[in-house]
Amino acid sequence: MFESRFQNFTDPSDPSSGAERLAALRAELKRQGVDGFLVPRADAHQNECVPPSEERLAWLTGFTGSAGFAVVLADRAAIFVDGRYTVQAREQVDVEAFTPVNSGQTSPQDWLRENAPGLKIGFDAWLHTADAVERLRKAGITLVALDDNPIDQIWTDRPLPPTAAVREHDARFAGESAEGKIARVQEAVRKAGADSLLLTDPHAIAWLFNIRGGDVDHTPLPLAWSLVPASGRPSLLVTARKLTNLLRDHLSEIADIGEPDNLESELEALGRRGRTVLIDGSATAERLRQTLEHAGAVVKQGTDPIQKLKAVKNPVEMAGAREAHRRDGVAMARFLFWFDTEATRGIDEITAAQALETFRRETGQLRDVSFPTISAAGPNAALPHYRVTRTTNRAIDAGLFLIDSGAQYLDGTTDITRTIAVGETTTDMRDRYTRVLKGHIAIATARFPRGTSGAQLDPFARRALWDVGADFDHGTGHGVGSYLSVHEGPQRISKLGHVALEPGMILSNEPGYYREGAFGIRIENLLLVREAEMPNAERPMLDFETLTLAPIDTRPIARELMTAEEIGWLDAYHRRVVAEIGPLLNEETRDWLERVCAPVGAA
Ligand SMILES: [Mn+2]
User: Fold this and answer.
1) Residue 417 alpha carbon to ligand 1 centre in Å
2) Distances (CA, A) of 56 to 124, 381, 574
3) Are 548 and 525 in contact (CB under 8 A)?
4) What's the CA-to-centroid distance between 474 and ligand 1, angstroms?
5) Cα of 415 to ligand 1 centre, how many Å?
6) Mean pLDDT of 200-226
7) CB-count exposure of residue 316 (10 Å: 0-12, 13-18, 19+)
């Protein structure tokens, strides 16, 4: 009945080939004359999603999480993962071959200092940022850049690099011409005192030139490079076969189009003329920094100015986000109605994920899911980054069911989590559910002076949990792109979110609670920062417009824990959901929506 086009539920790997591949790698390292090798989970663009041809860490170790790092020495090897992935690493990796290490406790450089004093450690300078290499060198590690990545020498069936078609991102979605954006970026380059800006982040390039691609899963990125001079024409280096003649002609009006392989010769040309080139050392490959430096360029390290420009949505993007969320709200309402009807008839996590994707596809506008759906029943929901596979798939039975999902539409990217009561819930579940909801409402209703950072707001989401000695181990919110990545910076609501929130930024609001081995809760809406309407305010104030429109389950609410103001917010939110989504539903679904959105106050 339901199918998935944009996600699969296969078990990605098995640990069995780890030892054999590790032995082959060690032989190759010996041939290249180094004592060890670093294997990051990264490509030359430092993407969160990498194409299959860049999945070297997964190929070598079996580990498929979005962040990880392996160090291979002649007699030992370790895989470093953060707290989110310790369980997954033990399941996916041959722990006899690779010792799992919690990177929150021991960094690769600490481990190397301890286990590899004085050894020559090889690395691929395309895959490590300039900043990361500097940290390792400062820690006293002897690094040797290898021109031929040793893994590529032994990975015989390595997939080819992706060549997905690049498309123009239409002005009616982008809201600003590429020319206008280029002029704004050039101004920032001049302000930074640089002659040229090197762009290696495909998100920035997609935004700047109003193009989108399909080189990685779930984010419409074109893998490409770009150089933006302080004045004159930028260059855009993208594989020719990704462009139609029409798009090439169009882009040629604003940029010099070339092949990605030309990047280093362009950098060398800048170096020969002694130019100052701005790079973001936290995102630019060490290889490119070296190339610039060796060619005689002045390398200026700073932050990529596009991050901030891209984060602040223009009025067209804001209107698009609202439209995308109404459309997504229709799919969510249809899904939640279906779930309420079917949940007691024996469905499982995969069926739920497929059903939701199907309802989204039936909007006729779905380009992709914005990440693999987290469809998690019972104890699986206690893993915040759970991904369902055929092996882990659980039947949905009494308790709490968590579903975190999102969509890519041309006019906007969505990300929503709902936690749904199935049959009976325990007092304990209802208590924690209500505290998570209180945290969600505290963020949604926050008013704050201009200049306030996400770090300052983050505790709002936690207070009701802190009251009972509980907490959750992830940030409260991340930035979201406009038909781009579902995770974008620089703004975020977390302990580390030191960037001031600005009108036009989109953020998620997703407090949670996780009880290992038992259940998990998260309630997530996307928010748009705006100027607050406070006529008597003594300073410029900001607040949030909630973009996401879907019912929040009221059944697991412990009403006695809620204040009148909190109930007032929830009832008003539900009135808005009914008013905006109701007219777009068939009668049966609309009746259901009105029922589940009934005021809690009147219960
Ligand atoms: Mn999210």
Assistant:
1) 7
2) 12, 29, 47
3) yes
4) 11
5) 5
6) 97
7) middle
What is the rounded distance in angstroms from the CA atom of residue 32 to the CA atom of residue 121? 11
Residue with tokens 């199935």: 422
Tokens, residue 563: 């204040």
Q: Report the 3 state secondary structure along 86-134.
A: HHHHHHHCCCCCCEEEECCCCCHHHHHHHHCCCCEEEECCCCCEHHHHH
Q: Measured in angstroms, how far is the CA atom of residue 487 from the centroid of ligand 1?
A: 8
Instruction: Count the residues in the chain.
Output: 603
Q: Which residue has the higher pLDDT, 390 or 72?
A: 72
Distance from residue 360's CA to the centre of ligand 1 (Å): 17
Distance 112 CA to ligand 1 centre (A): 34
Question: What's the pTM value of the predicted model, to 2 decimals?
Answer: 0.95
Chain segment 263-307, per-residue pLDDT in tens: 999 999 999 999 999 999 999 999 999 999 999 999 999 999 999
Distance from Cα 434 to the centre of ligand 1, integer Å = 19
**String of b and e for 241-250 (b: at least 16 CB within 10 Å)?**
ebbeeebeeb
407 beta partners:
369
Quick one: 220 exposed, middle or buried, by C-beta within 10 A (0-12, 13-18, 19+)?
buried
The CA 479 to ligand 1 mean position distance, Å, reads 9
CA 481 to ligand 1 center in whole angstroms: 12
Q: What's the 509 CA to ligand 1 centre distance in angstroms?
A: 8
Expressed in angstroms and rounded, the spacing between residue 416 Cα and the centre of ligand 1 is 7
Determine the distance separating the centroid of ligand 1 and the alpha carbon of 404, expressed in angstroms: 7
**CB-based contacts of 186, cutoff 8 Å, min separation 6:** 228, 229, 230, 231
* pLDDT exceeds 80 at position 4: yes
Report helix, strand or coil for 265.
helix
CA of 526 to the centre of ligand 1 (A): 8
Q: State the distance from the centre of ligand 1 to the C-alpha of 157, rounded, in angstroms.
A: 35
Residue with tokens 């360029």: 297
Distance from the alpha carbon of residue 380 to the mean position of ligand 1, in angstroms = 17
Q: How many angstroms does the Cα of residue 366 sit away from the middle of ligand 1?
A: 18
Contact 349, 375 (CB under 8 A): yes
- CA 199 – ligand 1 centroid, Å: 26
User: What Å distances lie between residue 107 and 121, 312, 394, CA to CA?
Assistant: 16, 34, 35
Please, are residues 460 and 551 in contact by the beta-carbon 8 Å criterion?
Answer: no
Closest to 420 measured CA to CA, from 596, 590, 178:
596
- What confidence tens digit (pLDDT) does each residue in 463-484 have? 999 999 999 999 999 999 999 9
